[in-house]
Amino acid sequence: MSGVIEVVRVELLSEYGLFLAKIATVVVAIAVVAVLIVNLTQRKRQRGELRVTRLSDQYKEMREEMSAALLDDHQQKQWQKARKKKLKLEAKAAKAKAKAGEADEKGKSRVYVLDFKGSMDAGEVNALREEITAVLTVAKPQDQVIVRLESPGGVVHGYGLAASQLQRLRDRQIPLTVAVDKVAASGGYMMACVADKIVAAPFAIIGSIGVVAQIPNFNRFLKGKEIDIELHTAGQFKRTLTLLGENTEEGRQKFRESLNETHDLFKGFVSQMRPGLDIEKVATGEHWYGTQALENGLIDAIGTSDELLLGLLEDHEVIGIRYQQRKKLMERFTGSATESIDHLLMRWWQRGQKPLM
């Protein structure tokens, strides 16, 4: 009898194990399908999206709301009635034009507003190139572009590419204005000087036309711990300075030569963009505040981006352009960490250190 019971137990365990295996297989299959769906969705969304905001309408609504708020109750009721009637007539006219196949042209030239808040690696250039491409597909000769720029600089190749993207507007003879409210230094100024006009706030930080690089060396520490480092290169100057190996005076000299060559390229670029500038006077790596920058010819006018846009609202249609890349799930976590580091570096620089380049 006990033998029969034991056989039954074995069969039950076997069937239960087979059942669990089936469940696990189904769960894994569902997970695989879910991952495939997510990947396909992310691939479709990888290109990101372009967001267009009619800033003229926003400012107009703000002005109307403020005007209404200053009226008494009776006047507000009359104003609301008149406004509803006006909106109804405008909507009816637009519908009639659309039905007739007519373009809804307001007869005003357009001002396209782009924002560039640069980090050390100038990663924002990916969005900038999309925004500029979008503008170039529709811009007319009478239109213009304003870039609200904020950057203390960063890697040379990143900001060189960002400046080249702005150069595309200049090559197409589309008037470009750069507005600096806080800082456009080093690589940030490399971008700004491409513009036909630079407007900066009175205490905005401008300039820092220089190049800086630093690298720690742990060779003496490692020698003290009896740790040898071997570095093999093909090419005399494949590696000039190293983190762990022993640096030579020849390598240091070559490293300084490379910095000076980069600085010369930087100065040449600024001189080409702003030929009236005394480049030797301003290319010392120093930075200036807005009013000082105006005296030195680094900018063309004093003012904030808000004043600049408000002055264009009456005669122009002001449109904000922003390209936003959809991030993958992992990038959302790593991206937030990167942004935190950038913010810390920005604060460190703002406390008196030189901008990175």
TrEMBL record:
A Pfam match: Peptidase_S49_N
Coiled-coil parts of chain: 45-106
A GO cellular component entry from the record: plasma membrane
Keyword Transmembrane: yes
Gene Ontology BP terms: proteolysis
Highest taxon of source: Bacteria
GO terms of molecular function: serine-type endopeptidase activity
Transmembrane segments: 20-41
Localization: Cell membrane
Peptidase S49 N-terminal proteobacteria domain residues: 11-166
Record key words, sorted: Cell membrane, Coiled coil, Hydrolase, Membrane, Protease, Serine protease, Transmembrane, Transmembrane helix
InterPro entries: ClpP/crotonase-like_dom_sf (IPR029045), Peptidase_S49 (IPR002142), Peptidase_S49_N_proteobac (IPR013703), S49_SppA_C (IPR047272)
Annotated ranges, domain Peptidase S49: 169-312
Homology family: Belongs to the peptidase S49 family.
Protein name per Swiss-Prot or TrEMBL: Serine protease SohB
